[in-house]
Amino acid sequence: MASKAMAIATVLFRIFTILLATACVVVLILDKATDIDGNKATFKNVIGYRYVLATAVTAAAYCLLQLPFAIYYACTEKRLIRGDFLPAFDFYGDKLIAFLLASGVGAGFLVTVELSEFVGDLLKELGEHLEDSPFESFFNKGYLAAGLLAGAFLCMAVLSIFSSLQRTSSGSRGFFR
Fold first, then answer.
1. Which residues, in sequence order, are bridge partners of residue 32?
2. CB burial of residue 30 (10 Å; 0-12, 13-18, 19+)
3. Span 64-86, mean pLDDT?
4. Which of 150, 160, 169, 145 is nearest to 13 (CA)?
5. What residues contact 53, with CB distance under 8 A and at least 6 apart?
6. CB of 165 within 8 A of CB of 23?
7. Which pLDDT score is estimated for 1?
8. Of 38 and 169, which is predicted with more confidence?
9. Best label site of 26, 31, 161, 171, fewest CB within 10 Å?
10. Are 6 and 165 in contact (CB under 8 A)?
11. pLDDT greater than 70 at residue 83
């Protein structure tokens, strides 16, 4: 029964990761600002936001790849491909994607904090406030995208724990046999 519950939870966490990563992508793509001079800023102008987008797309693609295998395992309690390949792929893939998402979350929050402080100081020198500029919304969407990616990271961290538990309970001898 515990194995069935863990398999169903794995499917749910993979779906939540896909949804959160996709929402992050949508927020970043829609994140645009135009100042009074007509200068436009999008996620493409900020390298950190492009990295956040790349990590979200990678995580969503990985979970989409893993989802059919997880659904099959949840329904039948058997692996689609026999042997140690899928448990090992789950184990190492989940760890890699979790660390990738963690770096994306850090990059997203860091670049948003740094840019908002820089633009805020620049506007203060000109006698304006960041709250009155269209860039406040731009940075708020950056925070939102990083927060959604943080939720995807938490889901992948739980999946990483699940894959570790499934790997140790299956009696696998390890990578270097």
1. 42
2. exposed
3. 83
4. 160
5. 24, 25, 28, 29, 43
6. no
7. 39
8. 38
9. 171
10. yes
11. no
pLDDT digits (tens, 9 = 90+) for 118-141: 888 887 887 777 777 778 888 899
Q: Are 66 and 90 in contact (CB under 8 A)?
A: yes
Cα(21)–Cα(112) distance, integer angstroms = 18
The two structure tokens encoding residue 177:
């046999």
24 in Cβ contact with 149 (< 8 Å):
yes
Q: Which range, of 6-10, 15-19, 141-145, averages the lowest pLDDT?
A: 6-10
> What is the token pair recorded at 28?
């970043």
CA distance 102 to 48: 13
Question: Cα dihedral sign for 144, 146, 149, 155?
Answer: negative
Window from 16-20, 43-47, 123-127 with minimum mean pLDDT:
123-127
- pTM, to two decimals: 0.86
Interatomic CA distance for residues 169 and 177, integer angstroms: 17
